[in-house]
Amino acid sequence: MFDVTPADLHRILDRQRTGFLRVGSPDLKQRRSDLRRLKAEILKRRTEIVRALKMDFGQRSERESAIVELIPLVQSINYMIRHVGQWMKPERRHVSAYFQFGRAWVVRQPVGVVGIIAPWNYPVSLAFVPLATAIAAGNRAMLKPSEFTPATSAVIGGIVQAVFPPEQISVVTGNGEVGAAFSALPFDHILFTGSTAVGKKVAEAAARNLTPVTLELGGKSPVVIEPGFSMQWVADRVAFGKLTNAGQTCVAPDYVLIHEGDKDGFATAYQDAVKKLHPGGYAGSPDYTAILNQHHYERLSSLIDNAEAQGARVVRLGNDSTADHVLAPVLLLDVTPQMAVMQEEIFGPVLPVLTYRTLDEAIAFINARPRPLALYYFGDNRIERNRLLKCTVSGNVTINGTLMHYVQDDLPFGGVGDSGIGAYHGKEGFMALTHPRGIYKQGRLNAATLLQPPFSKLTDIITNFILR
Q1: Tell me: the pLDDT tens digits for 237-273?
Q2: Which residue of 28, 44, 134, 239 pairs with 139 in a disulfide if CB–CB is 3.0 to 4.6 A?
Q3: Active site residue 391
Q4: Which residue in the list 64, 250, 345, 428 is annotated as catalytic?
Q5: Annotated catalytic residue: which of 216, 226, 345, 428?
Q6: 69 is catalytic
Q7: Integer CA distances (angstroms), 55 to 2, 45, 153, in order
Q8: What is the pLDDT of residues 310-339, one digit of tens each?
């Protein structure tokens, strides 16, 4: 229904840009109205959204879809509605004494047309939160959902079509050729969420047009556990973060770094935590999500087999269903850095456990790898925790928990280096998708007029005074 050709993309962009330049920046009332209408349509189609997600994944928890897709999305839109008026206010700036009787201020100007590329793992929230951010910032937008979730993409397109005219917001779908052409369009900003490999291609295409980008990527987000900390506390929260959406989460705990004396205690506690979360098992479970497709199921199975072949102890915590690409949780012990599972982002319910003897070893291990999108620390030792935070660089951090930094609307969300460029969510999202336009209004009396021809002795005095 929303499939387009590369040629169509240029026509849609031209139409949106012409409309933006003709009408200009929408006022506060219009932005809030657009956000409220978008939220209302999303809630109206809540059941349709959940069914589409289940259709695309084959097996996806309806409750989990509501909790991890819709609740953060609605909360984010509500937050923007409440605060966008404050973000839009002009900010007064200082005027030098030599330019007094003039005034200076900064206004946040919409950049124009934003291109949004959404991923398949959370196809609803990771499409609509960036879109709502673009709307709050006063922009128009073209949204490309993932081709791997066609049923959900159709619902997303229907929601947008019901609320906005195409010259304001458009949804486009298509194959890889369309995706490449979308990235190459001369947008005023591109916001991409997805893998590091694809993010590099998006950045390369955007650079040809000097289009600024916000890249929300991924990486291997570590969990560092303080020696002697409550293993059950840690295991419950790591299991929650790892098994949400079956681990198909960009900020999921990717691997655990634990003191060598606590490894066995954690392994036992983690197995107990997993059983508590899913006492009914996995294949056919209404509360557990399948791996998106057979390709990713086989990729994860290969990572497990590679680790086992190199000496890892594989602890399978349930039964799989290959036909339905349902992968039960797996704990990997005695893992080494050379294993394939430690060379790429896992994006599934597989948890490697590595040990350290000192915190310096754990810090060195993290710093020897690309900077992660998230960092998790469990412990009460403030000195050790602060040392870890001071000596590592990452995206956001959750202390004594997992995932929860993502749903804090007043925190920016973004990575560093291989895990991303720029940030959005809350005010930072508004700032990313606006241009700080500096304005100076000159007063009738202005000392600077003495620094222009015809020059005089007074000019020399003022110049020497400034340069003293």
Answers
A1: 999 999 999 999 999 999 999 999 999 999 999 999 9
A2: 134
A3: no
A4: 250
A5: 216
A6: no
A7: 18, 15, 11
A8: 999 999 999 989 889 999 999 999 999 999
